[in-house]
Amino acid sequence: LFYEAVARPSFLRVAGSNWGGAVTPDDEDRYIAEHVKPVDGPVVDLAAGAGRWTTVIAEAVGADRLVAVDSSLPMLNVLRGRLPDVPAVLAGAADLPFADASVGAVVCWNALQAFYDEAPAAIAEAGRILRPGGTFTAMTFRRSEDPVYRYFQSAHRFPQHEGGLRLFEPEDLRRWLTEAGLTVREESGPGTFVFLTAVKEA
Predict the structure, then answer these.
(1) Based on the structure, what is the number of domains in the chain?
(2) How far apart are CA 23 and CA 191, in angstroms?
(3) CATH number of the structural domain spanning residue 65
(4) pTM (2 d.p.)
(5) What residues make up the domain containing 81?
């Protein structure tokens, strides 16, 4: 409750420059519903956390197609209480327990920055497990171009980032996607948000 009611909205304001509320929870849900268009195979909610967006993905594609993956057992326990019909898998983003070209879509929502050092490997893993035509849909954050605001972004600390939060340069994200065999279909986002959808090349 604290995470969803207090910590997460505060984090979005800082990381996304969302002080005016330009991005709302409804905006996030709408993006997922509009852009997650899986081909055959299961849909993986990567770094699903406590299941806030797993619910949205389940509504978009069907709970029977969905698999939630996270490296935190306490988070998955909450998710399972929320969504008992969705299988939950304990695994890290850089080593996913799925066969090559076996998945119809991967969603990584508000999570890539939580494992910054593993982000290139996580994107490579998404590319590996996706079937041709499958989509990788993500929301994360870029570093501000304003050096003062960039300082405040990097000063944000929580358990995974005791040395300060690190965010992405858009060109790095695009390069990692290309190296994973993914082509960016859509990229947007106000402030320092990054919303993107990429497609696995045939």
Answers:
(1) 1
(2) 9
(3) 3.40.50.150
(4) 0.93
(5) 2-200
